[in-house]
Amino acid sequence: MMFKHLFTAGFLGTFAVLASASSPTKCRCLYGQSCWPSDTAFSQLSRNLSQPLVHPTAVASPCYTNPSSASCSDVKAHFTDALWRPDQPGGYQFQNFESYIQKNGTIDACYLNVTLGFPCKQGSIPPIGVDVRSPADIQAAIRFAKANNLKLVVKNTGHDYQARSAGRGAFMVWTHHMKNLTYHEAFVPSGGPPQAASSAITTGAGDQWGDVYAFALQHGRMLVGPFSLGGSIGTAGGFAMGGGIGAFTPKHGLGIDNVLQYTLVLADGKIVTANAFQNTDLFWALRGGGPGTYGILLSVTYKAHPSFPVSIATFHANLTSDSVAQTILTEALRKIVPFTDLGWGGYMYIIKPNLFNGLWVAPNVSQSVLAKALDPFGAFLNLTSGGQGGVFYNTSSSYYGWYDKTFLGTSGSQVTGNILPASRLLSRELALSNPAGVASTILSANSIFTGIEMILGGQVNKIDSSSVGVNPSFRHSVANVLINERWADGISSVAIAQQIDMLKAHTKTLDGISTDSGSYMNEGSLFERDFKKTFYGSHYTALRNIKFKYDPSSLFVVANGIGSDEWDKELVCLL
User: Fold this and answer.
1) Is pLDDT of 546 > 90?
2) Which residues span the domain enclosing 63?
3) What is the predicted pLDDT for the residue at 412?
4) Distance between CA atoms of 372 and 174, rounded to whole angstroms?
5) Region 415-442: what's the mean pLDDT?
C-alpha cells in the first residue's frame, strides 16, 4: 500500500491482506479480496462517468511484454521526462513509490532495466481508477468508493515524497485532466464584499505550474509557486494544501498564504467553497493541513501579483576539505536572514563529494544592486576554495522568462529514481546567533545530497501563525534544509532498509538546526518519530477536529496525514 508501509512495516506486516477471504468492516476493501467489486459493478460505475475507467500499470511494463515494440521505445525515450510521467495513470515521479515490499522481503516493482531479471509487478500502483473530468465524475467515484468500502487514493501528477497518491490494491481518483485556467482582474471570494476584490487566477485540479506561470505572464501577473523540472508540479495538491514554498515566498508569503479560495468535493459528495467568508474553518485547515485529507479539490484561486523583472546570482565552490566546507557554509548561512528579509529567495546545494552551488533570485532589483551585495561573497568563495569558486549574474524582464530558460527546458532531465527525503526548518534564531553551529550540524548529517532552500523568512515570518493551519514553525524559520538517500534499481530490501536507517540517523542530527523539529511535509520523511509535531505542530488537534467534522468516516487517509495514526501501517484497517 502506501510506501510508508514498504519499509516501516514491510518486514513486519503481511502481504496476505490482498488475498484474504474476507475483510473486517473496520478495514477497507482491497483488490484481490472477495469484497472487491465485480466487473458488473465497475461497468455500472463506468456508465455514470464521462470517461472510461483507467487501469494503471507500471510505466515500464511494455518493455516486459515486447522489448522491441514501439511502446517500449516510447517508454525508454520518456522514462525520466517530468511532464511525460504525470500523463501516465501509473506513473510517479520517483520509482520507489511505485514499488512494494512483501513480508518476506521480495520487492514488487517494474524496473526499466529488464536485464536485472525481475518480473514486472504492479507494486503500489492502484489497479483501477476514474479519469475524472468534472465534479460529477468525482462525486460518482466517491459514491462508489463509499458504497464498496474501498481504499481511495487521489492522484494528479504523482509528484509526492510521501506516496500519498499511491496505494496497493486501492481505487484511484485521477484528477490530472481537470485543467481550467481563469484570470480575474477583480476576484471577489464567494460570499465576500466588493472591497475584497483582488487580481487572481483560478487553477483547475489538474493544472501544472509551468502552464500557470505562462498564463499569468500573458496578463502581466505572477503567482507564488514552486521550482520543478518542466514545471511539472500540480497547483492543487501538496503545494496548495501543505504550505507551498518557492523563490518568492520571502516576498509574498507561503503558497497557502496566497490562496483566496478552494472549491472541493467532500466525503459526502457535496461541493463546497472554502474561503475567508464561507466554511472558514475548512479554509483554515486546507491551508496547511495537507492534501488528500479533507476532500478532493476542484479548483484553487491564488492571488495574482504584478509581474516584475528579476536579477539572479548563481554561485559555486569546490569544497576541497572539511574545514573549507565549514567555512564556506557558515558564510553562506549568514546571508539568509538579511537577504530573505529583503524578499529575496535562494537555494544552495551540497553534493558529495565536494560540490557546492546555489543561486539567489532578487525581485525588482537591478543586477548592480545584487552584485554589490554578493561580490564580496564571490571573492570569498574564490579565495577559500583555491580559485575554484565565484558568483555570476543574470537578469530577466520577468520571473517566467528566467524560469522558462532554466527549468521548463529540463523536462527530460533525470526526475525518477529511488529517493527518500527528510527535512527540517532552520530556526531564524539559530541562523542569526550561531551560523557556524548550524553549518557544523548540517555537514555532520553527512547526507549524499543536502539542499538548503532559503525561501522562508521575510514575509513568511511576518504573518500571524494562527491565521492558517500550517505548522507554526514556518513563522519563525528562514530556510528548509533537505537531505535524501538514494539507491539503484534491483538492490535488496535489506540494503534499502539500511538506507532508511541512515536517513533516520541523519534526520535526528538535523534536529539541531530547529527549535521544534519542524519540517515541510511535502519534502519530509515518511519515518518521523512524531509526525504530528514535526508536520503540524500545535495546530494538530484543531486540524483533526476539522477533519472529522467534514470527513467523519475517514474516507480520505494518507501517510502522515491528519488521523493516519488511527489506522494500521497499511492505512487499511482502523486500530
Assistant:
1) yes
2) 3-173
3) 56
4) 49
5) 95
